[in-house]
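Hi, here's the filled form for the chain we discussed.

Project: internal
Contact: R.S.
Residues: 364
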Amino acid sequence: MKRRWPARFAMLAIVGIVAGVAALMGWFVVGLPAGLTGGGEIRIFIRKGAPFREAADSLAAHGVISSPRMLSIYARARGADRSLRWGTYILRPAMGWERVLESLNAGRGVVHTITIPEGLMLSEIAQVVAEALDITPESVLDAARDTALLRRLNIPTPTLEGYLFPDTYTLPDGASARDAVHLMVQRFEQQWKPAWDSILPGLKLTRHDIVTLASIIEREVRIAEERPVIAAVYMNRLRIRMPLQADPTINYALGRSPGRVLLKDLKVDSPYNTYLNPGLPPGPIGSPGAASIAAALQPANVPYRFFVAAPDGHHEFRRTYAEHLAAIRMVRSPANPDSAAKDSAAKDSAAKDSAAARPSTKTP
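And the returned structure, exactly as it came back:
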């Protein structure tokens, strides 16, 4: 009768075999010295709830290890296959099993990638950062009220709205809301070119004004080439103290995402209502990218004061109000050509009446 070995002894035997193979293969299996690891950094994502073998396959596919099967056996034997931490890791090729397991079990090397698209409001950015770092949106909003940063950037508004630069960021595990906000502000400062400061006096605008205008442009633009022309429309209006009548500022005043603005929305009592208040609003309505900032600083040399969006995303630009109404009839409502024009005319009328009753306090 054959003797049956207990499962524990069988597992120990497997460990012994693996260790023997490791010994034969030398450092190249169990762990290379740091100075002998090859290649550069490798970014690997391990999804939440992924089995160890899936993670091992991903490691092998990226050249961190050579044999996912052998690593899985080794990890199981050591009980290291049940404490896998998910996330995005930055590892190196040929790290060796021990160092790989230490990283996966302790979450060492985990990073968080955050992508902030152009035009997002602070409240939206707070949600994105909070989800990525597993923190609360409120903590991000609190960090965006950092008085030291507000003073450093000479921001007259109570938050860093508009100055959390849209980009992709990598933060280490355990990063705080303050870390994220400081990194995004630092990126804004890096993106603001020193040469731009020399343009401001000629425009009679401050940097804060430019960031504010750029944030409106960012929300309006659908085709990149139109940025300088949209900027010109707003600049032309500012010069003659004509209300900007920018729909994105109405949505911001109402605390909602971009969408169609109705006549009733124009009555919202807010300094960000550019139908009621000539001039720029108090601050940005989102985070503009570098292209929109550049457009605000260097608008196109065109006489337009009106534009309307066509269904395909491009804008029709016009010099006079009569031309503008004709453009609206052309692009918006083929079945009922007068309805869209009447809607626009009502908006303009409401803006003119309000502007007459409430003179601007801002000199562009």
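Let me know if anything looks off before we file it.
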